[in-house]
Amino acid sequence: MKILIIGAGNVGATLGRVWLERGHDVRFGVPNPSDPKYATLPKERLQPANELRDAEIAVLATPFPATQAAIEALGGLSGVTVLDCTNPLGMGPDGLHLALGYDTSGAERVAAWAKGASVFKTLNQTGAENMGSARAYSTKPVMFVAGDDAARKPAVMSLVSDLGFESVDAGPLAAARLLEPLAMLWIELVMKRGQSREFAFAMVSR
Predict the structure, then answer these.
(1) pLDDT > 90? residue 81
(2) Which of 55, 57, 65, 141 could form a disulfide with 4 if both were Cys (CB 3.0 to 4.6 A apart)?
(3) Strand pairing partners for 3?
């Protein structure tokens, strides 16, 4: 698939590398493709962040406060499948916290900004290092996918599976109100409870 990743930080760069290995046509949208900080990425895969070109999938791997501007810079994403990997984090007296609660979600804000796009919430529930090594776990880690477009959801779930996750349908986009707190739990365990960053959630059945 033709994938444009907006943002080439830890999450964006990791997802792009693995999808390239799986045979997808990946490009990275960055503010300045000639910036030396992107030297670890294939130069021919870099493009300006405000150019959608022929991408079928747009992956939002930006800090949440920069996400609306990133969408607007692309001139909108109508008709495009959008994977929202962001989490609406804020900083408070006790450190990082979710800036949005259970009556809405960051993904629903993204859907409002990207009018006409098919938005899916996924790849926000673990650290970037685990997105690059999901196949290394003895038990396949789970990655939930929430979105309203039933026709496009199988392709999104297939992309998630390509990374090595057990891709699980979490229902409509409103389920992002549950998936973003799940990401916050991962962050809480790593940053405050001494858990290794190399842990991921999994589903097991008996």
Answers:
(1) yes
(2) 55
(3) 26, 57
Q: How many domains does the chain fold into?
A: 1
In this structure, are residues 35 and 46 in contact, taking their beta carbons and an 8 Å threshold? no
**Full domain range(s) for residue 89:** 2-192
User: Mean pLDDT over residues 45-49, rounded?
Assistant: 97
> Strands 25-30, 46-48: parallel, antiparallel or unpaired by DSSP?
parallel
Residue 46's pLDDT is: 98
Q: Tell me, yes or no, whether 176 lies in a domain.
A: yes
Does the residue 165 lie in any domain? yes
| CATH number of the domain enclosing 142 | 3.40.50.720
Distance of CA 52 to the CA centre of its chain: 17
Tell me which of 42-46, 69-73, 103-107 is least confident. 103-107
**CA–CA separation, 164 vs 174, rounded Å?**
25
Alpha-carbon distance of 133 to 156, in angstroms, equals: 19
